[in-house]
Amino acid sequence: MIDFVIAAYARARARGQPICGILALIVHTWLTFAACCDCHSTNVRSLVAKQQSNMPTRIVSNIRTTLEMIKIEHTLFALPFAFLGAVLAARGIPTAWQIVWIIVAMVGARSTAMAFNRIADREYDARNPRTRVRAIPSGALSVGFVWGFTVVSAAIFFVAAAMLNRLTLFLAPVALASLILYSYTKRWTLLSHLVLGWCLAIAPTGAWVAVRGAIDSPTPLLLSLLVMLWTAGFDVLYACQDYEFDRREGLYSIPARFGIARSLWISRALHVGAFATLVALYFLTNLGVLAIIGVIATGALLIYQHTLVRADDLSRLNAAFFTTNAFVSVILLVTFGSAVFFRH
Fold it and tell me: Which one, of 307, 109, 251, 274, lies nearest residue 197 by Cα?
């Protein structure tokens, strides 16, 4: 596999396809790191012997476990909003260069954030029945491996920011610091839900900056505010399942402070704010019928999400959290994004 990627990189360079070549090199770096890191052994000679005999199996195992650790499927929450920010900024399809590096930046940033969060929370995860099966507390991945993965992911994020423009590179440390800070917020503030919202809200404005090199309109800021309130609302719902654990461990969260019933109302209020921001975004962009369809569909999904969860019944929380939220971001990308093409 690694030889194949190296060959692909060489062919891409020979054909004058720098984007494909750089992406191949990035994949090569990740695969090499996954292949060379043994999660359970500190003996170098033993590591080399295992590499020679079990490299394909270990690559597949490490990659699968790592993707599970960073919840790669949750990229559906933020990536469509990044694409929407880019489409609105470009008033159409951004360049291939911009699209590629926005994707690389998103993957790098999200991988950094999730991996660092698993490191920071590993002791809590080991004590929480819901999370003790995660990669570090279960022993599937070592702390050293996850640290290495975090550093590599952060480096990829900075490379992607540098490939876009000067302002994205200048703002990259702010984004990365926000992602790292979030992992500690539950230790000292119940506003951690809004901090998580801020972290995801960086995506659409960041993509706007990636395309235009400036924040020259209130449009990306409104889109980011929408993402922040929407994310905080569903994170309050998600935190309800850790109500007892958070209180016992002295962690800060809205459910731990106000109880589950009141937290559901707080979540609803945040989503009302998100919907109001979406309506404001619609009037600001004036994108017509397709966009209003997106507004209506999003409102319906938010309402449906809250019908799935009751204070005395959290059994359908995963459906509320994963399914409906993934639909929200995709629907807004399709409707608002398509409206941009019809308008321009």
Answer: 274
Domain final residue, candidates 39, 69, 99:
69
The rounded distance, in Å, linking the Cα atoms of 96 and 188 is 42
**Domain CATH number, residue 332:** 1.10.357.140
DSSP state of 321: I
Last residue of a domain, one of 69, 93, 117: 69
193 is written with which tokens? 């839900």
30 plus 173 within the same structural domain:
no
| pTM, full prediction | 0.83
Check: CB of residue 205 under 8 Å from CB of residue 85. yes
The residues near 322 (Cβ < 8 Å, ≥ 6 apart) are none
Alpha helices in the chain (DSSP H): 2-14, 18-36, 44-69, 75-90, 96-120, 122-127, 135-138, 143-164, 166-185, 192-212, 219-239, 243-249, 254-258, 260-285, 289-307, 317-318, 324-343
How many structural domains comprise the chain?
2
Asked if 219 and 275 sit in the same domain, the reply is yes
What is the pLDDT tens value at each position of the chain, 344 positions in all?
A: 444 444 544 554 455 555 545 555 555 555 455 445 444 434 444 444 554 456 566 666 677 788 778 777 667 678 999 999 999 999 999 999 999 999 999 999 999 999 999 999 999 999 999 899 988 999 888 999 999 999 999 999 999 999 999 999 999 999 999 999 999 999 999 999 999 999 999 999 999 999 999 999 999 999 999 999 999 999 999 999 999 999 999 999 999 999 999 999 999 999 999 999 999 999 999 999 999 999 999 999 999 999 988 898 888 887 777 778 888 999 999 999 999 988 76
Residue 25's domain spans which residues?
A: 1-69
DSSP 3-state assignment of 262?
Answer: helix
